[in-house]
């Protein structure tokens, strides 16, 4: 579990890319949460099969996440990239 994006006024999550990357391939589950903890409101949940990857694009305006984004790894091993912008 890790803070993916720190809180910032007008912050927007516009997309992400995630890959299951365990040394011995296994399923993985990750929850993106709006805030700073694993108990924060879920924005998006992802379940990956062994060796699977996925990506999502929420559009130029994305999802408002002024409290930041917390990556809650529920199971498995993953690598993830978050794409964000600050709306002015």
Structure summary:
The protein has strands spanning 2-5, 11-20, 28-34, 41-48, 53-57, 63-64, 69-75, 78-86. It has 88 residues and is mostly beta strands.
Topology:
Layout: E1 2-5, E2 11-20, E3 28-34, E4 41-48, E5 53-57, E6 63-64, E7 69-75, E8 78-86
Antiparallel strand pairs: 1-7, 2-5, 2-6, 2-8, 3-4, 3-7
Task: Characterise the protein shown here.
The protein has 88 residues and is an all-beta fold. It is 0% helix and 59% strand. The chain is built from no helices and eight strands. The protein has strands spanning 2-5, 11-20, 28-34, 41-48, 53-57, 63-64, 69-75, 78-86. The strands form two sheets. A four-stranded antiparallel sheet has the order 1-7-3-4, with no helix packed on it. Strands 2, 5, 6 and 8 form a four-stranded antiparallel sheet that branches. A hairpin with a 6-residue loop joins strand 3 and strand 4 (41-48). The chain is globular. The N and C termini lie far apart (30 Å). The mean pLDDT is 96.
């Amino acid at each position: 579990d890790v803070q993916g994006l720190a809180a910032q006024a007008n912050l927007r999550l516009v997309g992400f890319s995630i890959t299951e990357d365990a040394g011995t391939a296994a399923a993985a589950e990750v929850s993106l949460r709006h805030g700073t903890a694993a108990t924060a409101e879920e924005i998006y949940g992802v379940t990956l099969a062994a060796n699977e990857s996925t990506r999502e694009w929420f559009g130029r305006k994305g999802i408002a996440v002024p409290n930041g984004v917390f990556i809650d790894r529920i199971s498995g091993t993953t690598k993830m990239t978050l794409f964000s912008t600050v709306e002015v």
